[in-house]
Amino acid sequence: MAEHKLKAGYVAKELPIPKVKDVLKYKLITEKRDRAVFEIAPKKYVFVYSYGVLVFYDVDDVMVSATIKNLRGLGIDIEKEKLWDEYQLVEHVKNAVEFNQLKMKNVSVENIEVVARMLSQSVALENYENKVDGMVNSFSALNKQLKDKGKLKGGSKDLLRIIGTNNTIVETIVSKMALLEEPAAAWESEEVEWLFNRLRKTFELEERFKHLQYKLEFIQNNSEVMLDILNNRKSEILEWVVIILIAIEIVIFVYEVIFM
Question: What digits encode the pLDDT tens for the residues 62-73?
Fold first, then answer.
């Protein structure tokens, strides 16, 4: 039974497919708006996803490094500490999806692409899970400030940045990753549909998205509350500035009336 390895890595925030074609000189197999498939060598592929993930199929580490090096020609920031995950595909007489490997009778490019897509989404989700956990920890510190001191330090710029990051993550997951959508091939092939549904359950994509969604809503709600607090603080400061200015005008007026 032949064994094959898929290796997925989150390498950048975005990989624009038209530009990727210009820097990767491999044989182009498939091109879509959000992804592209290249054949690096006979039956060795790299799947490129616009949301920043590469999935290599039977590609050695030397070619993996060379491919990522070529992507630096895009002029985008490549992640220094990349997030990687691997999955085994085994040629077998019977189809079966297991936790760490997939057994398949028909190892076609179409089926490999389904596995690559699920693995890429899993890695991208893990990246966002880590980022969101970091934002939740930041809010824990801010909530502690409110609890202990009854006020917030700093301005609204950091909160606005967090809100922007929050919205970008939601947009990427729903729109670019199409996490909740079936691939078009699933409508045409029972095997592809079976493979897609089983892998989605194996990688727990829907459950993980729901947990992530809950945290994103928590961040959104906390951001709005804290922005209101900061805006109220600014309003109070402005009110005091107006009161002080009026008081100064009154003092000047009285001085002019009495002494001038």
Answer: 999 999 999 988
- Written as six digits, the tokens of 96 are 């079966």
Helix (H) or strand (E) holding 46: strand 44-49
* Pair type for strands 53-57 and 44-49: antiparallel
Task: Specify the pairing of strand 83-91 against strand 101-104.
Answer: parallel
- Pairing type for strands 101-104 and 96-97 reads antiparallel
Say whether pTM exceeds 0.70: yes
In the numeric block, which tokens belong to residue 226? 């804290």
DSSP assignments along 22-63, one per residue: HH--SEEEEE-SSEEEEEEETTEEEEEETTTEEEEES--HHH
Task: Report residue 231's pLDDT band, with 50, 70 and 90 as the boundaries.
Answer: low
Phi first, then psi, for residue 85 (nearest 5°) are -150, 150
133 vs 135: CA distance, rounded Å: 5
Burial 73-88 (b: 16+ CB within 10 A, else e): ebeeeeeeeeeebebe
What is each CA distance from 235 to 159, 218, 239, in whole angstroms?
18, 26, 6
- Assess contact for 51 and 177: CB atoms under 8 A: yes
What is the tally of helices (H) and strands (E) in the chain?
Answer: 6, 8
The span from the CA of 95 to the CA of 184, in Å, is: 21
Identity of the residue numbered 41: A
